[in-house]
Each structure stands twice: as C-alpha cells, then as structure tokens.
C-alpha cells in the first residue's frame, strides 16, 4: 500500500477534525471555491473516496489547499499522481509554494489535474511552461445560487409510462462505460456514488435504463446521459430539476460543468436558473521528455 505522507516541503496533511474549519474558511470564496468546498463536504458527510487533504504550513496566511488523488483513475494508480488545488483568485501569488513543492509532487512525471479554476491553471502554466506542456480541456461552471420557483418536481408525468428511480450499483458499469472521461474516474467510484449520493435514472416501461444523472464526489450534478432512442422526451430536464431539488435539500449548492460548445445543456440549465460563474480546466501536465505518454484529458458529458 502506498505511503501517505504527513507533510511535504510546503504543505502538511490535515486531520479530519480540522476539515470543518477549512470548509468554513474556503466558503468565503464561493462560488469560485465550489468544487473544492463541496469535495470536502461529501468527504466528511459520505466518505465516498479516500482523499488526503493538505494545506500550506503557513495556512491561512498563504491559503493554498490540495487534495490527493485529484481523480479516481490514473495510468499508474498512484495517489500522488493527480491532485486538485484551490487558492483564492486574488492571492494567486501564493501558488509559488505549489511550484516549489517537490516532496508531494514529482514534476518530472506526468501529473493529472481534475477541474481547476482557469485563473489557477493560468498561474500554474506560468511556471510549468519551463518544465513541459499542458493538455487542457475546458468547461464552464454553472451554479444555481438562487433556486427558481418551479412546479413540484416530484409530481412528474413521464412519456410512455416511464418512471424515475434511485439507481442501484448494478448500473454503475453501464454509466461508467458511457461517461466521456471514464479514463479519469474508475467504475468503483460510480458504485460508491450510487450507494451513498443521489443518483437517479429514468426507466422505460420495459425496464430499460433510458437516462440518468448522479451527484459527484465533488458535489456537482454530472454524468447526465440519455440513450439516443429515448431522447426528445424531456427526461434530461426532469432529472436535472429533480436532482437540483435533492442536492439543495442535502445542503449543497447545485452546480454543473458544461463544455463551452454544448448549447443544449446551457439552455437546459438556464431554464432552472443556473448561471455561468467561471471557467474551469481539466489538464494533463507532461514534462518535455514525457510528451508522448498517453491518456487524454476528457471532459464531462454535460
């Protein structure tokens, strides 16, 4: 089993007892901190995955926070092969501590970053350009800050006698197989999400899984898919509306990651009151001598 390091050069491992205070602190920077903020909440509330959280040794004077791994599947399956990072956008100069971190992070190897605020990624690129190249996939963060007054989403009439049900783990493989970034998230995480978080599917009258949507370990409503033969029946809007309600009731701020070119998803979430707040980046950092290593960046299916 891989050793969990208690500290790096500039960062120290947090105890679980410290996490509520960390959540309160980075909550000051919502919605820009939303992904990291809600990753901490799902970790404390549901322990969907074994993440390890680190803050600077000078926290909160230099407020940079990391978690390892940053995603649940990487080529070598190593904890410190991927990470997520947050730093307030008006204090990005403190990311110099990340650039200097050579214990927790091996900059001579490919590194995988899950959705990261574009301003943070730009700062990382400033120092990483001397080391290697960055393969980037962009997404837009849409947040529902003020829920709209909608009709009761629990009283829904489905086309052709379909019904909406909480998913069960037997559907994890199907959902994972059709998830656009399934090389960056393992099937086991989908099993745990279905077991512990709101995950719903629309089933046809014959029992086929027609459409689905789940809440991620980082709090987002994601992996919304509708099988081609069941499209244009309104299932996506119904799922999004219902999951928004459930996520809100569980104390989370609903948000989604949408590819910039996905006008259909933008229109769907606009109907529910979601608004774009910032751009995010999923990236692979490749040292110059490792430029041919494989594994694409991927984006959400939104």
From TrEMBL:
Q: Where is the N-acetyltransferase domain?
A: 162-291
Domain of life (superkingdom): Eukaryota
Matching Pfam families, A to Z? FR47
Q: Which InterPro entries did the record assign?
A: Acyl-CoA_N-acyltransferase (IPR053225), Acyl_CoA_acyltransferase (IPR016181), GCN5-like_dom (IPR013653), GNAT_dom (IPR000182)
**An annotated Gene Ontology molecular function:** acyltransferase activity, transferring groups other than amino-acyl groups
Q: Which PANTHER family match?
A: GLYCINE N-ACYLTRANSFERASE-LIKE PROTEIN, RE58324P
Could you identify this protein by its name? N-acetyltransferase domain-containing protein
Organism the protein comes from: Tribolium castaneum
Gene from which this protein is expressed = AUGUSTUS-3.0.2_00274
């Amino acid at each position: 089993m891989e050793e969990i390091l208690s500290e790096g050069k500039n960062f120290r491992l947090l105890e679980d007892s410290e996490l509520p205070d960390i959540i309160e602190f980075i909550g000051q920077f919502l919605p820009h901190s939303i992904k990291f903020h809600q990753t901490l909440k799902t970790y404390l509330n549901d322990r969907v995955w074994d993440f390890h959280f680190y803050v600077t040794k000078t926290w909160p004077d230099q407020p940079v926070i990391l978690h390892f791994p940053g995603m649940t599947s990487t080529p070598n399956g190593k904890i410190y092969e991927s990470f997520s990072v947050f730093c307030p956008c008006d204090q990005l100069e403190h990311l110099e501590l990340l650039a200097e971190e050579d214990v927790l992070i091996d900059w001579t190897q490919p590194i995988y970053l899950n959705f990261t605020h574009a301003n943070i990624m730009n700062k990382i690129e400033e120092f990483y350009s001397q080391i290697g190249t960055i393969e980037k996939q962009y997404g837009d963060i849409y947040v529902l800050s003020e829920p709209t007054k909608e009709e009761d989403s629990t009283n829904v009439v489905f086309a052709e006698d379909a019904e909406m049900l909480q998913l069960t783990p037997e559907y994890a493989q199907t959902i994972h197989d059709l998830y656009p970034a399934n090389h960056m998230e393992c099937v086991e995480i989908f099993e745990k999400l279905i077991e512990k978080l709101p995950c719903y599917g629309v089933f046809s009258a014959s029992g086929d899984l027609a459409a689905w949507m789940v809440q991620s370990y980082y709090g987002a409503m994601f992996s919304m898919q509708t099988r081609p033969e069941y499209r244009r029946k309104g299932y996506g809007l119904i799922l999004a509306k219902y999951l928004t309600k459930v996520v809100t009731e569980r104390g989370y701020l609903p948000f989604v990651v949408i590819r910039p070119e996905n006008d259909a998803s933008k229109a769907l979430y606009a109907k529910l009151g979601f608004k774009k707040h910032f751009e995010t980046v999923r990236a692979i950092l490749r040292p110059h001598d490792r430029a041919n290593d494989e594994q694409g960046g991927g984006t959400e299916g939104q």
